[in-house]
Write a structure and sequence with these properties.
heterodimer, A: about 290 residues, mainly alpha, 13 helices, globular, B: about 350 residues, alpha+beta, Rossmann fold, OB fold (Dihydrolipoamide Acetyltransferase, E2P), 6-stranded mixed beta sheet, 8 helices, 18 strands, MetI-like (chain A), transmembrane (chain A), membrane (chain A), transport (chain A)
């Protein structure tokens, strides 16, 4: 048997590859990023110079940046609740065993394994104002349809629509969590005369609350970042900066305009916005006593 | 469904030809049973005997394939569980883990939209009655097994049902607590005077609690009657072997206990007396001393094993010859083929 001391060092040994990777690939670049934010680093030269708060001053006067923040906030406000609603709704609907259930569950998960680029190209067709199926569907209800990607609001909605499909991970988590709930609780509720909606409100959602909070936080982090690909393929930040989400603007600054230091600063802002939204979510959770 | 013989019962529970199958498995098979108003009936049987399914059929959580359930004289076949005026206490209590004790008790009252003040009063009364007043704000996982069981009972109590259905409510408790809770349960029943069907696999629980004991096996009722009667006059070899610990000795007829060739003969261990002049010659295989009594496991010359219950401190040891004498008044005869009492 190994001594406790040996056991501890073995533990650290197993942890080491992960620790080294975290330091080299996350902690160090993050520290460098903070440092670069206060330089004139272009990403092309080797000797960035310290410029103090110049980049911060530029940020406060940058209307593109304000557009970018607005686009990101619009997206996260609409996308997170809708993605969560879809994942939870479909998860709860398909959790119970039913004929053909596995096919429906596969269908819900499938868009998640499709590469973002492929899904975006698919949505170029879906949102096409002339022959896209979405406008044709609206036509069935007598609506003339939208010029989806040419109008600022519909372009943003189009990106949200596209990102409503890859919800497989949240869906699977809800599915698993729902299946772990004790069926007797539902029988006890049925004996009390609690209907399906009552059971959802009084049992399922409160018991799933920890999972839902986790999904909301995770989706907030994800949603603020994954809109990069659809925005790049569908609209390239247009029209009128409506889809110039923060990741897009960071990419443009860093790699197209050689503003590496400025991009570094915006990425810090993106992190701060993410943290602020999550903090607000956690405060809401505490205030509403969503969890025990 | 055959319901043309709707009985005119003033109250209580009546089950008629109740049948429920799952695939090829017959969980409940043609059960007829009447539980009078205020009666405490215990249903006992081994695992898979259909006793829990029977309870679920009465509660309405399962629909019978054939037969019907009448509660308070009303046909409940098409009545949903919450309109049946029964309260079911689940084996694992099924308390809502995200709600406190008082919220658990209030749950049903809130669903039924009982005015807040009235609901609080009823919940308070139930909690007081079951000694839960100090733990009202605790969550189920902060309670002991006994407290959880009482919360489940309190939740049933506030429904003020016509009948209580208890599905092994003592199974999750340790032996000592089970004993005291058994007494509490009886006291509660005496207070309420409510019709109660109590399912258990513990024969001691069934015998001590029930006004009447129903023994089930294979989805059928094997015997129903007052505890002592069922014990003294078992209807068949299954009941004879199931009730009593150690179980009744049942040997083929014409053997050491006499009887005809077409019979099987049974005698309970306490009805086999150690007697130097006894007619049955045996050798002691094992002596199990329980402190207040001794269980003697003996073997006859023909290989028949007989278990006898004797006084403590007999000074016997394995290998000793022992003569046994059965009480002739307490010999049971069963048909060798059907196993039914002759």
């Amino acid at each position: 048997m190994t001594s406790p001391r040996n056991g501890t060092s073995t533990g650290w040994g197993f942890l080491a590859p992960y620790g080294v990777a975290v330091v080299l690939l996350i902690a160090l670049p993050a520290a460098l990023n903070i440092g670069y934010a206060f330089t004139d680093h272009t990403g092309l030269t080797r000797d960035p110079q310290f410029v103090g708060l110049d980049n911060v001053r530029r940020l406060t006067e940058d209307t593109f940046f304000l557009d970018s923040v607005a686009a990101s906030l619009f997206h996260v406000t609409l996308s997170v609740p809708l993605r969560l609603l879809a994942a939870v709704g479909l998860g709860l609907l398909l959790a119970a065993p039913r004929p053909g259930g596995r096919w429906y569950r596969t269908a819900v998960y499938l868009p998640t394994v499709i590469p973002d680029v492929a899904l975006a190209v698919l949505f170029l067709w879906v949102l096409n104002p002339l022959y896209g199926p979405l406008n044709q569907l609206l036509g069935l209800f007598g609506h003339s349809g939208f010029n989806w990607l040419a109008d600022p609001v519909t372009a943003r909605v189009g990106v949200v629509l596209m990102l409503l499909f890859p919800i497989g991970e949240g869906f699977v988590v809800v599915l698993a969590a729902r299946r772990m709930l004790d069926g007797r609780l539902y029988e006890a509720a049925a004996l009390e005369g609690c209907g399906p909606l009552g059971r959802l409100r009084r049992i399922t959602l409160p018991l799933l609350a920890p999972v839902l909070v986790l999904l909301a936080v995770r989706d907030t982090v994800l949603t603020l970042q994954v809109n990069f690909v659809p925005a790049y393929i569908l609209t390239d930040g247009r029209p009128a900066n409506a889809t110039l989400y923060l990741p897009v603007y960071i990419f443009d600054q860093a790699f197209e305009f050689s503003g590496f230091a400025y991009a570094a600063l915006i990425s810090i802002v993106l992190m701060a916005i993410t943290a602020a939204i999550i903090a607000a979510q956690m405060l809401t959770v505490r205030r509403w006593r969503v969890m025990r | 469904m055959r319901r043309e013989h709707a009985p005119a019962l003033p109250g209580g529970i009546r089950l008629q030809a109740l049948t429920k199958t799952y695939g090829r498995v017959s969980a409940v098979d043609g059960v007829d049973l009447e539980v009078a108003v205020g009666e405490f009936v215990t249903v006992v049987g081994p695992s898979g005997s259909g006793k829990s399914t029977l309870l679920r059929l009465i509660a309405g959580l399962e629909a019978p394939d054939v037969g019907g359930v009448w509660i308070d004289g009303l046909d409940m076949s098409r009545v949903p569980p919450h309109r049946r005026s029964v309260a079911l206490v689940f084996q694992d209590y099924a308390l809502y883990p995200h709600l406190t004790v008082v919220e658990n008790i209030l749950f049903g009252l809130r669903v039924r939209r009982v005015p807040r003040a009235e609901a609080r009063r009823q919940a308070g009364e139930a909690a007081e009655q079951l000694g839960l007043a100090d733990v009202l704000d605790r969550y189920p996982d902060q309670l002991s097994g006994g407290q959880r069981q009482r919360v489940a009972l309190a939740r049933a109590l506030v429904r003020a049902p016509s009948a209580y259905l208890l599905d092994e409510p003592l199974a999750g408790l340790d032996a000592q607590l089970r004993l005291s809770t058994r007494a509490d349960l009886l006291a509660l029943h005496r207070d309420l005077g409510a019709t109660t069907v109590h399912v258990t696999h513990d024969q001691a629980e069934a015998m001590t609690l029930g006004d009447r004991v129903v023994i089930m096996a294979g989805g059928r009722i094997r015997q129903a009657g007052p505890p002592q009667e069922v014990y003294d006059r078992p209807a068949d070899t299954f009941v004879a072997g199931f009730l009593g610990s150690p179980p009744m000795n049942i040997v083929p007829g014409g053997g050491v206990l006499g009887g005809g060739a077409a019979t099987r003969v049974g005698v309970r261990p306490e009805d086999l007396r150690v007697d130097d002049d006894g007619p049955i010659e045996t050798t002691l295989e094992a002596v199990e001393s329980l402190g207040n009594e001794t269980i003697l496991v003996t073997r006859c010359a023909d290989g028949t094993r007989l278990v006898a219950r004797a006084a403590p401190r007999l000074g016997l040891a394995a290998g000793d010859p022992v003569r046994l004498c059965p009480d002739p008044e307490r010999i049971h005869l069963f048909d060798a083929n059907s196993g039914r009492r002759v």
